[in-house]
Design the sequence.
């Protein structure tokens, strides 16, 4: 595609993300780079499948009223997706500067969006505050659906909430409780109480299995035999 | 500093091992007895019975071959977990008996940490991202804040287990048979490739590979497809962890570190990131007594001895639950 001013903004382990302008539109390109360590057939297959999958999830999420980038073009020969740029700031970077009353509102806005996504059977897969963008009007958007899945497994959906909570725990301890309370209140209004309870039971279970968690250690300690 | 010597006993799964290491980093003996089931996988009770049978011969040999007298030891280390309960109990019992009889400190070693420490010792890596892959374990770890943290791991079965079970069910036996057969493979069949962040899942892959075989696909082609998929998944999760931790060394430990193809892939990946690759030599790749002895030395120097009453085995002991205070001191 003819585009000007390609500027690389992130080199991830899997893809190179760059910003460019096309006919006056600001776009983001996500190019999944070939990995020389994989067999060429396998490498092509994985990159192609992930590219198509990501585009499909973005499209489905949009249909369900989830704010996320719109797919503009897919270049299958290169495993590259072009999508609209979401202009704003990562929630990770601005959450600390917001007044407490705004935190609740944002959390509730996010709760509604994630609930809509979850009841349509989409799990984001990497729902941390770095993948949530806030625009100038205070609207939230979800980005980077690289690890997302279409799923009816409670586990996958619960992982989203677990990851969100963990990212708040590590970066925004002071607002975590308030954020999660408002988030879950709205989530439950949209997704239903029963659905939410089912997910939250799983979230608790995941925490127990978790890696650095005290609760789990106690649990394990009690289960030693001999 | 006075030189110390520690006897280490390994018994988490199919291997009962004895080793003696010194604080100068010498391995004076490394004697291992491996239980090989006549068919199928490891039966914990049968493995434990095997360990009991060879135990006293092993204890005699480790002293004879190292030339160390029991009284010269400064500590007795044993793998306290993770592993199979009946097997762990054999090693723990020998260790407790020797510690009481000789009046020496008892040192509880985490089996996974020992795989990492023996690798660091013999390869001279300082601060690697570690891929620990074996029949019973698959995880990616690196040191941070006083202990080895797990950055990625299997969500279900171990990668080695996936390959072993496939080999056994396909009638060619466990690893390395599937990898050897893969060299005659020509056609690649796509199989479920499940990577979630730095975690991976192997059980669906195993089922799919077995199905493919029963549908009449050529054995060598299935071996090729399976091994390539498993190793690619491992290499990709390792790549993510390497990018995330920004370290410059990669270390491969555990039984599957013997795989030539896996090593090749990890080397190609590391080159992209300017990292060096260190692969544990074969004699220390599988479970062995020397790794427990050496980690015991580190733990003795760090003051991690425990009283016999608190030496219950820990079959589900994760490496991120084991403090590694010697790392702080640059050991």
Sequence:
């Amino acid at each position: 595609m003819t585009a000007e001013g390609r500027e690389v903004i992130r080199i991830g382990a899997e893809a190179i993300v760059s910003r460019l302008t096309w006919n006056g539109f600001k776009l983001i390109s996500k190019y999944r780079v070939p990995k020389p360590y994989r067999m060429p057939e396998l490498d092509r297959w994985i990159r192609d499948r992930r590219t198509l999958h990501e585009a499909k999830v973005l499209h489905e999420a949009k249909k369900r009223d989830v704010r996320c980038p719109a797919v503009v073009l897919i270049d299958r020969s290169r495993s590259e997706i072009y999508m609209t740029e979401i202009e704003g700031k990562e929630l990770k970077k601005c959450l600390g500067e917001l007044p407490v009353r705004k935190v609740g509102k944002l959390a509730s806005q996010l709760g509604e969006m994630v609930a809509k996504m979850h009841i349509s059977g989409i799990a984001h897969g990497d729902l941390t505050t770095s993948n949530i963008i806030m625009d100038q009007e205070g609207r939230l958007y979800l980005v980077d659906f690289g690890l997302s899945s279409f799923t009816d497994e409670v586990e996958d959906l619960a992982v989203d909430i677990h990851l969100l909570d963990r990212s708040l725990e590590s970066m925004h301890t002071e607002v975590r409780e308030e954020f999660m309370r408002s988030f879950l209140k709205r989530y439950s209004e949209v997704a239903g109480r029963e659905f939410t309870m089912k997910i939250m039971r799983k979230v608790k279970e995941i925490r127990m299995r978790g890696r650095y968690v005290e609760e789990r250690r106690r649990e394990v300690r009690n289960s030693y035999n001999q | 500093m006075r030189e110390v010597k520690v006897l280490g006993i390994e018994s988490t799964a199919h291997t009962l091992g004895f080793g003696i290491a010194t604080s100068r980093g010498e391995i004076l003996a490394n004697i291992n007895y491996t239980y090989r089931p006549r068919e199928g996988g490891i039966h914990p009770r049968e493995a434990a019975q095997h360990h009991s049978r060879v135990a006293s011969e092993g204890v005699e040999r480790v002293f004879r071959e190292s030339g160390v007298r029991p009284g010269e030891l400064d500590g007795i280390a044993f793998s306290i977990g993770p592993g199979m309960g009946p097997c762990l109990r054999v090693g723990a019992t020998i260790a407790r008996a020797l510690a009481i009889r000789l009046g020496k400190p008892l040192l509880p070693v985490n089996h996974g940490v020992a795989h990492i420490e023996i690798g660091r010792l013999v390869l001279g890596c300082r601060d690697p991202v570690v891929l620990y892959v074996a029949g019973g374990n698959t995880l990616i770890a690196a040191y941070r804040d006083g202990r080895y943290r797990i950055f990625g791991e299997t969500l279900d079965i171990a990668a080695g287990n996936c390959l072993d079970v496939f080999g056994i069910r396909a009638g060619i036996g466990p690893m390395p048979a599937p990898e050897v057969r893969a060299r005659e493979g020509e056609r690649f069949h796509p199989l479920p490739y499940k990577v979630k962040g730095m975690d991976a899942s192997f059980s669906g892959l195993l089922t799919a590979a077995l199905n493919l075989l029963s549908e009449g696909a050529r054995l060598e082609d299935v071996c090729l497809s399976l091994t390539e998929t498993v190793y690619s998944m491992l290499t990709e999760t390792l790549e993510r962890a390497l990018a995330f931790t920004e370290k410059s060394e990669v270390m491969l430990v555990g039984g599957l570190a013997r795989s030539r193809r896996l090593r090749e892939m990890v080397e190609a990946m590391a080159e992209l990131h300017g990292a060096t690759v260190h692969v544990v030599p074969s004699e220390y790749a599988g479970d062995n007594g020397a790794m427990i002895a050496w980690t015991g030395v580190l733990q003795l120097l760090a003051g991690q001895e425990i009283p016999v009453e608190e030496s219950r085995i820990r079959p589900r002991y994760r490496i991120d639950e084991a403090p590694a205070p010697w790392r702080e001191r640059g050991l």
Notes: The first strand of chain A starts at residue 4 and ends at 11.
